[in-house]
Amino acid sequence: MNKPKILVARSVFPETIARLEAHFEVESNQDDQSWSKAQLIQKLQGKQGAFTTGSERIDAEVLAACPELKICANMAVGYNNFDVDAMTARGVLATNAPDVLTETTADFGFALLMATARRITESEHFLRAGKWQKWSYDMFAGSDIHGATLGIIGMGRIGQGIARRGAHGFGMKVIYHNRSRLDAQLEAECKAGYATKEELLKTADHVMLVVPYSAASHHTIGAAELALMKPTATLVNIARGGIVDDAALAAALRDKRIAAAGLDVFEGEPNVHPALLGVPNVVLTPHIASATIPTRRAMAELAADNLVGFLVDGKPVTPLNPAVLGGK
Ligand code: GLV
What we know:
The chain is of the alpha/beta class. It has 14 helices and twelve strands.
């Protein structure tokens, strides 16, 4: 029997390719070429499956041009690169990679919070530039993490991981805002209290964004929200570009309307708003919150599990649009 054909759209672990080759005829991209949409469509011709990352946009145009496609397995928990409604309409299964990155990403959220509040990169740049001549009482004085109020917007698995670290590890008061309130047991475990978005922005010393990107969450933080925050507050975005209005944030940082920001994700990344590059009080990292080798391996394995599970056994592990399975 002919093996199903799949496309692996980005470079991944050689072991993942080897595993996929046991089940599929695989076209891979181990040189990690950046493909245009037209090239992606061309590569997907005749493929039943695609191993994607957050960088490949799978929309109605791609789907219409690739009628043999049956599944796109994202090696990411976020899936705003998928038009899930269009995929469902075409009977194409979408899967993501949840859970396996939760703790690693929560660790990173905390790392970025600490680097931001304690001005770690700003002070390192100062030192590397040879500007450190003497000690002074307020040199790079930042704000405390322990005992401060942490406001988390988006209280899914990663938000809960950050809440636990803050409340149990650093004695923080944790408040959160989410579309739906957690049940009482989870709130108690996370030691987190529910707040409206406005209350949270007004009272938090540190605001952490962990909300998935959608049209509804576009610019969750813009000029109006930044104006509600304390002038001493920090803002951390490990969610997605577009959750924050980066131009408004750069202006608020420049004018010291908030103290500092830590950003792992950007509108239009890998491009970064030039105004953000020009302000000192921001820590910038290139979308690496889940980047440890064991976690990236687990994410790749889960994407592969979904391809094998669906195309070979008919049972994907983490389907996003299970309605599609009824018809297959
Ligand atoms: C990373 O941003 C992910 O969604 O996994």
